[in-house]
Fold these 2 entries.
Entry 1:
Amino acid sequence: MALDGLRSGIFAALSALKGKRKLDEGELSEMVLNIKKSLLEADFNVRQTKEISERLEQRMRDEEPRPGITLQTHALNILYTELVRILGKPREIHPHGQTILMVGLYGQGKTTTTAKLAEWWRRRHGMKVAVIEADSHRPGAYAQLQQLLADTPTTVYGEPDEKDALTIVRNGIAAVGDADLVIIGTAGRDRLDDELQVELENIHKVANATERFLVIDAQVGQAAGPVAANFHDLVDITGVIVTKLDGTARGGGALSTVATTGAPIVFIGEGEKVGDLELFESDRFISRLLGMGDIQGLIDLAPDDLDAEEAQRIAERLMSGRFSLQDMDQQMEMMSRIGTVDRIMSHMPAGMFGLGGMTPRQKKEMQTNLDRFRVIMDSMTADEKNEPTLLKQERIRRVARGSGATEKEVRALLAQWNKSRKMMKGMRGDRQMRKKMKDMMGSLDDSEFPM
Ligand SMILES: Nc1nc2c(ncn2[C@@H]2O[C@H](COP(=O)(O)OP(=O)(O)O)[C@@H](O)[C@H]2O)c(=O)[nH]1
Ligand SMILES: [Mg+2]
């Protein structure tokens, strides 16, 4: 996910708290200093970093962890609230009947994001979406958009030979009249110069758009703040989309400075493909970042052929942290239906399946192991799957023979299960986290939660 570096920096800083009941002055300032370094490396600005670290230090001094909560989680919870505060309040969008005007500088990802949004709402709301490409400066823009949406029923309107953007917008709106949602792409420049200002103001008047979304590349870092403020003055931005968060470790700069302009971040882009879009809500984003899990995000990943209820059920089940081999088997099946290990894991609580700190290589291995493990489990009895400790030497040999695997592979599966189970047990003591999970997930039995 975005800001992986910050995540591991924070985890490393907090690992110093493990098993401690109290910090001495030296330990406290070292932990805060390490958090500060991680924030600066993620490009949070100096003032914001100072604010977060000072509040963390103060609150670690003033607030006692509640009973049953480790010092480590106490610090994590403080960081969570401080980061959510810096990133601002989320904004809900109701797409029906809206006309969205997409604006931004050149090369920031406007055209790509226009296609991503069209697909986002078409897939999730079954809406009839139309897009109008009104970039009359860049010759290939219309073709680019057509290509991105080639296999979809979305109407793509453009006039590649028309030089006047206003004409395209007028004709386009008339042509796509029956769509539930219209998204209009515009031209960019290297900077917001007079010419672009006039063009955007005119399009803004003619289109009478209900939403104005600014698209901004995370790689511009803290410079995103002033850019957002300028566009905000011009067309009254209702939402910002920060793109290319997959390509920079320093995305904290764009995210945090945009938040200070008062224009809410509504989505983030994490790749070049049409599906690489995520809803941005600061609390959910930070929850994922800090390894607390994000059930809604998991549901959003569900494939097209799952209805909403089933997606919800699967996501809850995935997060429930039950842990017989049978459960592990079902969870693997669900994971393979939802998507890649990598994307799923970014929404799960850290430590679930013992995968909190997986390297890309380990994730890839896990992906290949999934099928292998399932074949092995097919050769186990129901009792063995419910109580894997039954599997000693003799039975392991039998299972290996039955599934065409080696004994070593069977043992690897058991080791994986054992590791995951321990990890979950270790996290069980934490009531507040457990409550958070529970609140996110509705009403499952307390004892089923890994945290
Ligand atoms: N890695 C990555 N690339 C992106 C993302 N969004 C857009 N791009 C790429 O950025 C480049 C410029 O995007 P484009 O949509 O043409 O920008 P525009 O000039 O603002 O319309 C293209 O190569 C896109 O594939 C993203 O979220 N991640
Ligand atoms: Mg473009």
Note: Residues 101 and 212 are 5 Å apart (CA to CA).
Entry 2:
Amino acid sequence: MTLFSVYQKLLNQYGPQQWWPADTPFEVMVGAILTQNTAWTNVEKSIARLKSKRKLTAQAIDRLQHDQLAELIRPSGYFNVKATRLKNFCHWYLAQGGFETLNELDTASLRHGLLSVNGVGPETADDMMLYAFNRPVFVVDAYTRRIFSRLGLVDDAIGYEPLREKFELEFISKRKQVNEEARVAHYNEYHALIVVHGKDVCRTRPRCEKCCLRRQCAFISDN
Ligand code: SF4
């Protein structure tokens, strides 16, 4: 089994996911910070509260008092830490000139810039890269590591960057000619499918009897 054949099986099982669930690129970026260490349903509540108070803009978040912002995003947990991170991010975002200016940067420079913001780590930056800026960067999360190490396709101690590169290189090597648009579409769909599978089936206590990958899974044969 290869990383690419897993993609095909997950796509057959769950169908296209059409991510990211947001109305604007800025909403994607806010969601990427709010979703750190919490379920998406909690993020949705915080986003709805920000929208209802007309505070879902970089300018509004930058101007809000920390405590006011923390109260608005309370449903997504770690609200004091996330308020600081959101304000850091929005301050940086505005100082850079906002979406249009950032979108003119090449992919490496944009990723480097996002990673320079206090509170934006590789997974958060790559969520933004892929789903807000449509850049061909694969997103690695805890589900990715868990599913693919159980399948026996990666070492569970593999670092973030080598794992990201492994997914990106395998897709590129499958295609003689692959343009940026096709890479973005593939990474977008694959990460979304991994999240669905990790959340519903390959959980901490896996539901292997329901799994479309069980015939090839090393975890099954080892247990
Ligand atoms: S068979 Fe079980 S351990 Fe393997 S990927 Fe499926 S749910 Fe996860």
Note: DSSP finds 13 helices and no strands in the chain.
